[in-house]
Amino acid sequence: MNTKLSLDFGKIIRELRKGKDISQEELGFRSNLHRTYIGMIERGEKNITLESIEKLSKGLDVSMKLIFEKLNKIHQ
């Protein structure tokens, strides 16, 4: 995939995850997603579904709105 949108989204997820000081494995556990899938998202290699975005937001303990606001700021 690696489109600008996917790369920007992955960057946001990585920054939020690191800001909470959790590993990809821990985020995967919290989100009920596989850790390798988390890595692929962070590298912009996956076209993520809304369902997975919701799982990530819950795993990161942030709102989907926050994720999309951050995405809107950097993806213009």
UniProtKB/TrEMBL annotation:
HTH cro/C1-type domain span: 13-67
Protein name, UniProt field: Helix-turn-helix transcriptional regulator
Pfam family, one: HTH_3
Alphabetical UniProt keywords: DNA-binding, Transcription, Transcription regulation
Annotated organism of origin: Kordia aestuariivivens
Source superkingdom: Bacteria
InterPro entries in the record: Cro/C1-type_HTH, Lambda_DNA-bd_dom_sf, TransReg_Diox_bact_type
SUPFAM superfamilies with a match to the protein in the record: lambda repressor-like DNA-binding domains
